[in-house]
Specification:
Helix content is about 45%, strand content about 15%. It has about 500 residues and is an alpha/beta fold. It folds into three domains: about 10-160, Beta-Lactamase, CATH 3.30.450.40; about 190-365, Rossmann fold, CATH 3.40.50; about 370-500, Helicase, Ruva Protein, domain 3.
Length: about 500
């Protein structure tokens, strides 16, 4: 039974209890339910709802007297029914008897026919915008004062605006998270391997991988050292018909000239000093699978001739043997050298070049894909958190600016090494600027970049970025409580609202 209070101090009692709930309840939805409970106990409220506006729709956020299915049915468009009309106009509305008003939709199907019930609906306004509604079903008797109830509900609506705004923000953050997850899921389906990046050049790389992988065509991967050429090779293999067959790699730059032929094609016992037994080479080991030769631009002209024969005929001979052997391999090569310049200097054979250059794939320098820097940094942060048993959650704004400003001559490999050092040296859950290598802390190497990495950022842009980071962090710690966030930042709620509006952190 309702604890009906008919004293003139009813309003004061209701507002005192609601104010106490606002102070003590940090969860927005729980607070709204608490308020409805107060209205149920102190007034003749049969049912009550808070709706929240999302675009052109109104959805029930909290209720009293409705089950889950009834809440789901309480979905209105702005301008639809009494609730939609209040949301559209921003003016309260009272119906003395819902059974006699055709505008009342009874969308939740909770009202019984013939039941004499009054309906009061008031707007909830935050920052001069209608963000939702508060409505109650009220029993009617000779003591009922609907005008008094309306005014009380309008006061309640005014003081819970921040709470409903917090719930709206939580919904928007959840929707953004869902959208981001969908984006990441899509990225995972478009990204053919372990490569990280979603800039236009990387998307082109992914598309080229998907095109060439099903074939047995030779692939030439070009790009500076540290850009991830081996990851491209692995992605090609993983999407090919040879994915379950051997992938054998050989770095031509890391192998002495006199051992390279033996390493690639194998040797017979006694073929040279130290050859105490027969040994099969990488080409033979890769039979049925894929042979990946890295830094192929470092091959000598003599080895280029032998490799060309193998590419054309798929035949070779072990060192110290005249017997021809056959190996069915898919060939992938990579180089950081300028092959055209090497050809002009007669250091690379033209016929081998054209045999390799069937399907070139170019990996861009990290300096050309600044928009991927933070995506890669977060990836490496997770990787090294796991490796070193740490729980570092974020990078400070100065650290982010330093990462974005640096020119990355060592490309992705340098960034990976940088993040490993930062994780090792970090003392709490954040990576600060001083955790980064000294090379990143030199002010002279580059102009800071904007968040998208496409153009240099000026001082006002950097200041706005810093303010945005501080405000977002304060709102998360608050959580979503504007007044608390403002106090933490040392500014008034009005100034905080202004800054959020200017920085695009809320709807205009």
């Amino acid at each position: 039974m309702n604890e009906i209070n008919r004293s003139p101090d009813l309003e004061m009692v209701v507002l005192k209890e609601i104010s106490s709930a606002i102070v003590n309840e940090r969860n927005g939805t729980a607070l709204l339910r608490h308020i409805l409970d107060v209205l149920y106990r102190r007034m003749k409220m049969l049912r009550g709802t808070f709706t929240i506006r999302r675009g052109n729709d109104l959805m029930i956020e909290a209720s009293h007297g409705l089950d889950e299915q009834e809440m789901k049915r309480g979905h209105y468009h702005v301008g639809e029914g009494i609730t939609g009309h209040v949301a559209e106009t921003g003016r309260p509305h009272v119906i003395e008897d819902i059974s006699r008003d055709s505008r009342f939709l009874n969308r939740t199907r909770t009202r019984k026919s013939g039941e004499k019930v009054a309906f009061i609906c008031v707007p909830i306004i935050h920052l001069q915008q209608v963000i939702g509604t508060l409505s109650i079903d009220r029993a009617v008797d000779r003591d009922t004062d609907l005008e008094r109830d309306q005014k009380l509900l309008e006061i309640v609506g005014n003081i819970v605006g921040d709470a409903l705004a917090a719930s709206l923000q939580a919904h928007e953050e959840h929707a953004a998270l869902v959208a981001e997850n969908e984006k990441l899921r899509e990225l995972l389906t478009t990204n053919p391997g372990e490569l990280i990046g979603n800039c236009s050049t990387m998307l082109q790389v992914y598309e080229q991988i998907r095109q060439v992988a099903p074939s047995d065509a030779t692939v030439l991967i070009r790009g500076s050292s540290g850009t991830g050429k081996e990851l491209v090779a692995r992605a090609v293999v993983n999407l090919s018909g040879r994915k379950d067959k051997p992938l054998v790699t050989l770095n031509c730059a890391a192998m002495p000239e006199n051992l390279l032929e033996s390493e690639l094609f194998g040797h017979e016992k006694g073929s040279f000093t130290g050859a105490t037994s027969r040994r099969i080479g990488r080409a033979e080991a890769a039979d049925g699978g894929t042979l990946f030769l890295d830094e192929i631009g470092d091959l000598s002209l003599q080895m280029q001739v032998k490799l060309l024969r193998f590419l054309q005929e798929k035949t070779f001979s072990r060192v110290g043997s005249n017997r021809e052997l056959h190996a069915d391999v898919r060939f992938i090569a990579a180089t950081s050298r300028n092959l055209e310049e090497l050809m002009a200097a007669n250091k690379f054979r033209e016929d081998l070049y054209y045999r390799l250059n069937i399907f070139p794939n170019v990996m861009p320098d990290l300096s050309k894909r600044k928009g991927d820097v933070m995506l890669l940094a977060e990836h490496f942060l997770s990787k090294f958190n796991l490796k070193y048993g740490k729980d570092i959650k974020r990078l400070s704004t100065p650290a982010i600016n330093m990462l974005m400003a640096y020119h990355w001559p060592g490309n992705v490999r340098e960034l990976e090494n940088c993040m490993e050092r930062a994780v090792i040296t970090a003392q709490d859950d954040c990576i600060y600027g001083y955790n980064l290598p000294a090379s990143l802390q030199m002010p002279s190497h580059d102009v800071p970049y904007s968040r998208d990495g496409e153009a240099p950022a000026d001082l006002p842009t950097m200041v706005d970025s810093f303010e945005r980071e501080l405000i977002v962090a304060a709102l998360k710690r608050s959580p979503g409580n504007m007044s608390a966030a403002a106090r933490e930042l040392g500014i008034s709620p009005r100034v905080l609202h202004y800054k959020m509006h200017r920085l695009g952190l809320q709807k205009s």
